[in-house]
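Fold this sequence, please.
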Amino acid sequence: MPSQNVIEQFVSKDVIIRKVLTRHIAAINEAELRHNGSLTRITTFVHEAFKIHYRGGDGKKITERIKELDSIMKDLVIPSRSGYNLASSLMVIVYYYYILVICILNY
């Protein structure tokens, strides 16, 4: 298992913004995302999901372990550029972020 420092360098906040959130960044207030701590929580989620995938196992067990990371994403605030913040009023689905992690791993 790579060290936490190696994982943080490999999957940095900038990588998460450029690769994971690339389609969504135009609608997100990135400065506020950083300021309110949501980017840190998303980064923590991606790092933990990366560790789970790195350890391997069957797909069902990986999915179960990813779902255990729900607490990291609970009540996440996603500020929009428009100021309406509609995304924050929706329930965050961990499966969606799971797919984003898969995109990073396949990068």
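Residues 38-55 form the longest helix (18 residues). The helical segments are 4-10, 13-20, 30-35, 38-55, 59-67, 70-73, 94-106.
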